[in-house]
Amino acid sequence: MEEIKQLLSMALKSNKKVIKGQEFSVEAQLNGLDDYINLYAKGVVVAVYDANDQDLNILNHDYRKVVIFFGECLEEEGMEVYIDEGLMD
To answer: Model confidence over 17-35: pLDDT tens digits?
Structure first.
């Protein structure tokens, strides 16, 4: 899961690019309007962080623990994070 922390850091620096790792990818879209950060696993979005609402939406139950760790990484980067499991399949 350490890969996620590194990918997040790189994605925040290179806005609007998908930063790919071996198992996960992270995309940060931070333009001041609809700001979000996506976490991908095997090419599929498993979590979306809405930076405006500070909601971290878990989209896939199989990756719940990974997404919780992703939320902790977001907090380490100085963001407020509220976990939302309402969209989970």
So the answer is: 899 999 999 999 988 888 9
